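Backbone-to-sequence.
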């Protein structure tokens, strides 16, 4: 259930990111950290106050990087399989 809720909050955060002029490729928290937005301080304060999570925006930025790296590695592995099949 926790994983489901995290994905749901991620979806809502990505929607907020789109509404505020960016893309769905990042959560609003990750973008706040990446771009050094003033919202990072507010989000980090709220996340700590409610969940005792430190550096929420940096944590989500790191998670986005890891998600991207996983997808890149997966795509490269698929390409490797397709290259082998062609040979």
């Amino acid at each position: 259930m926790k994983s489901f809720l995290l994905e749901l909050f991620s979806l809502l955060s990505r929607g907020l990111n789109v509404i505020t002029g960016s893309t769905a490729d990042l959560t609003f928290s990750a973008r706040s950290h990446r771009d050094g937005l003033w919202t990072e301080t507010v989000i980090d304060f709220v996340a700590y106050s409610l969940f005792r999570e430190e550096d929420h925006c940096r944590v989500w930025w790191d998670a986005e990087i890891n998600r991207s790296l996983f997808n890149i590695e997966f795509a490269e592995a698929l390409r490797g399989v397709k290259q082998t099949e062609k040979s």
